[in-house]
Amino acid sequence: GESVGLHLPTLSVQEGDNSIINCAYSNSASDYFIWYKQESGKGPQFIIDIRSNMDKRQGQRVTVLLNKTVKHLSLQIAATQPGDSAVYFCAEGNTDKLIFGTGTRLQVFP
Amino acid sequence: DAGITQSPRHKVTETGTPVTLRCHQTENHRYMYWYRQDPGHGLRLIHYSYGVKDTDKGEVSDGYSVSRSKTEDFLLTLESATSSQTSVYFCAISGTGVHEQYFGPGTRLTVT
What we know:
The complex is a heterodimer. By secondary structure, chain A is an all-beta fold. Chain A has one domain (4-109): Immunoglobulin-like. Chain A has no helices and eleven strands. Chain A has strands spanning 4-5, 10-14, 19-25, 32-38, 45-51, 56-58, 62-67, 72-77, 86-94, 97-100, 104-109. In chain A, the strands form two sheets. In chain A, strands 2, 4, 5, 9, 10 and 11 form a six-stranded mixed beta sheet that branches. A five-stranded antiparallel beta sheet of chain A has the order 1-3-8-7-6, with no helix packed on it. Chain A starts with a strand and ends with a strand. Mean pLDDT of chain A is 90; it is low at 1-8. By secondary structure, chain B is mostly beta strands. Chain B has strands spanning 4-7, 10-13, 19-25, 31-38, 42-51, 54-57, 64-70, 73-78, 87-94, 102-103, 107-111. Chain B has a single domain (4-10, 14-97), classed as Immunoglobulins (Immunoglobulin-like, Sandwich), CATH 2.60.40.10. Helix content of chain B is 0%, strand content 58%. In chain B, strand 9 and strand 10 form a beta hairpin. Chain B starts with a strand and ends with a strand. The chains are: A mainly beta, B mainly beta.
């Protein structure tokens, strides 16, 4: 069946460093790939998305890379800040529905 | 933040009782979703709606029903609550479907 997973459950980085969060997906027919951020006690917040016909997309301090050959998705956060501490989820989908991964916790140390 | 509210925010109920959770939006978005979030499982889709009175099942729909009689409200009903339905429930909305869903603050449900 379809599945979305993450390589690392917890990632610890020093403030100011770059962070890279990885995700593996299994459904080669997925058209959308999305990253969400969830802070403690809150609902997930949309960060950035990428469509299957792209391999890179940049936002404010974030970059998403899509490698369809190995079914791999990554989120890069530049100059990581304490406010970036959260759980990050990748998700994949087509048309109406998304399938979410189990999440990676990002911890930022001063 | 997108105009999404969920009620109640917290609820404790007993096994076997029916429970209804409400999601209300002020964005006039077409799509509405109900997810549950459990440790180790991430977010799993229960049901979703793609228009008034148009709903479909997600991956964990057993024991749940939904209704959408108007654009702004999407109700999730646990027909007979069980302890396995103890979870945090999130509602999400989207104007375009799978792309860019906005989530509500969540409802923490405990079934004793």
